[in-house]
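Good morning C.,

I know you're traveling, so I'll keep this short. The sequence:
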Amino acid sequence: MTPVTALRIHRLDNVATALADLDAGAELSIDGFDIRLTDPVARGHKVALVPIHAGAAVIKYGFPIGTATAAIAPGAHVHSHNLVTALGSAADYHYEMPDAAPPVAASPKTFQGYVRADGRVGTRNEIWIIPTVGCVGNLAARVARVAGDRHAGRVDGIHAFKHPFGCSQLGDDLGHTRALLGALAQHPNAGGVLIVGLGCESNQLGPLLDGIAPERRATIRTLSAQSVEDDEAACLAVIDELVEGCTDMPRTEVPLSKLVLGVKCGGSDGLSGLTANPLVGRMADAVATAGGKVVLTEIPEIFGAEQLLMNRAVSRTVFDGTVALVRDFKAYFIRNGEPVSENPSPGNIAGGITTLEEKSLGAVQKGGKAPVVDVQRYGGEARLPGLTLLEAPGNDAVSSTALTAAGATVILFTTGRGTPLGFPAPTLKIASNSPLAERKSGWIDFDAGQVLTAGFDDSADALLDLIAATASGTPTKAERNDERDVAIWKSGVTL
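The tokens, ready to paste straight into the viewer:
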């Protein structure tokens, strides 16, 4: 027999996941199952351990991930040619009081952060320029470049966040834009904020400011470009003032409880649920146990695994909020004529993920085992220690922007395929497999593929150290590459 190169995740599983590219004819011994591969199986893809009859459930992570469309023999490749989703739009959910979690010692880990006037802690001390509307996006970017050169070294950075929205929007769609931008303006990583409007847009400055608590407006300035003769000079004057107000802000040692951690996966593969996502789940548990906040979003990517999160709701109110969040998102799909199982993406499929159930069961592991304490709608803020579920789609840029707007001061972004994208909050890219980490070292901050050799404990210690260093000012790869963008959820009519 050859050395084990595939892994059975749960004792109930009738498939294993290849840890490397395997050739047809290879002989494997996996958890007492001796099989000969009848097909080549790529890294991250599944192989049958036992006969699976047509119509029977394929089991991974201990749960069904779909239904076999044909008889599958031991050693056969299990993927989209013989496995389909069993997910539908209707589902019955049940509430149970969660069992009391066993006490876990809180991590003594600390970081050097910026303590704001309201007690929140930032991991960066930056100036943010937020346009209310796409018309002034280039103005904001131009001002950020000039001001960045003028004030280099005085703050951690001066950044503009362009977007194409803010005008010709109606109802909830305009409300989404307003809520998201207002939340970004209150982020603790921004020592000062300039909100730039045009003057005639739907997203007027007044209503946007009305959504911001008065006690958080001290470091926020606004300017309407149509109301001044030299808009660039006027913006630069405001930035000069904001920089003066936060230049001498010191970093202070604070406990892990002051961190707000956003967790996200993008470009997942068949190893994401074995390595990177459960490793991030350990980080979520470490932060939550310490009294910090963790935010999980990508609601369409929990379909099929939502009951696992519902079982951790701390109250009936939180359970009901989670049910409403999931059902509303499913209704959004149906309203637009799309099946709720319209996932995984082409990249996910190439990486070995076949159905949405499989993707979701791997994805929810990013939330660890922390209690679900709150449910927030799009543009909402994480308020309570523990795990918050946040309304947002699965799109990388939209969901990561929503995590930042919810207050995340560090984002952990797992990936099996790789992406250069970065967002307003420092974003650590965590590879599910070592070949990706080696090939795209300019993108990837941490190799979670090492858990297959070094184990979870040592890898978790190393990743927690990296998180603390990042929160203390060490730049991420995305920051070094000047990858910092926002994307807003567009869900309605444009005039």
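Safe travels,
E.
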